[in-house]
């Protein structure tokens, strides 16, 4: 199924569904009301035709039978004598009952409905009653009323037994149907769109709040419950999210405490082990065993660092990031490492200083260890605020750029601190970057070397 990109959000789908639903319902209701109104007007037209015919027949009662046909011709422009081609039509009991009380005693009449095309005006091909110019104009003005109303056949008998059968239509009251009013449709469309937009925004507001909370929840964050609001389904989802958030926070705390306890408990036996290793007389064996001991100690220390990084508590403050970078450069230079600060952004950034410093320090250590040097820069561009650390090492295979962030992941199989490291430095750096609402990514440089970028996509400068 092809999914329309324009309807990819819940708010847009609700908006379109409401807009279409309300519009269709309004148009259908308008058409139904117009139909009922038209039927009502048709009935009124028919009643007026009956009243006009009753008045005509009552007036002709006092006329001698030979003159009645002539008088009927002169009295109405839209009336003609009935003939065999007209047929008897469909008797209308309601109009007949309405007409009878209006006639004089001894008179009788019945009313039947005919197809509207039987009510013709002069020039339509049938003989017409009324040939004067004024009668012709009146008949033509009445055509719209006949087309929108009914064509009636009236069969009348006078008190003297003579009969008069004629075809007539309603008086000019209605105009031809014009369809839906454009102004009404415009107002309806605008009002419906505004209502649909309002309802869509109200409906998705709790969902957006839930989405922001889920996106912002990270390792070590406090489980701040969301306020339960919205429909029952949304409240249930928020309640489930709050429960999940509490369970994740509890699990993370338990995991951190467990790792911290293990690494702490290892300190004492490792110290005893170091003392025993120092007592070995054979220099070669002692050197190899001490090297393994140092690798084990590095793993324990960085494991403890990893545990701490997920549960650090630090408030965000406004920081001169360039000064922080410069202090790291000074420390590394004093230690004899080749570290430079090439480009300064010159912007203060709201962040967690200690977490950011440790994140950058881990990346600098990694660059020095594998690339021999670290060139740093801070930039502000359309993507946000970024801190870059470049090295001159061999880089990382493209398919391993994400894998190296996994705990204990190393490109080398050696466990030696001098060659492969512990495999936790980049993991800790990414966690610390995430705690600062930033991302950490690696990329190989075309000229060689590796580029590590800490990107604040939505930086706060005040």
Automatic annotation (TrEMBL):
Residue span(s) of domain Histidine kinase: 261-460
Domain HAMP: 201-253
Any single Pfam family the record assigns to this protein: HATPase_c
Domain of life: Bacteria
Sequence intervals crossing the membrane: 182-204
The EC number(s) this enzyme carries: 2.7.13.3
Organism (species): Solilutibacter silvestris
Membrane topology classification: Multi-pass membrane protein
Protein name: histidine kinase
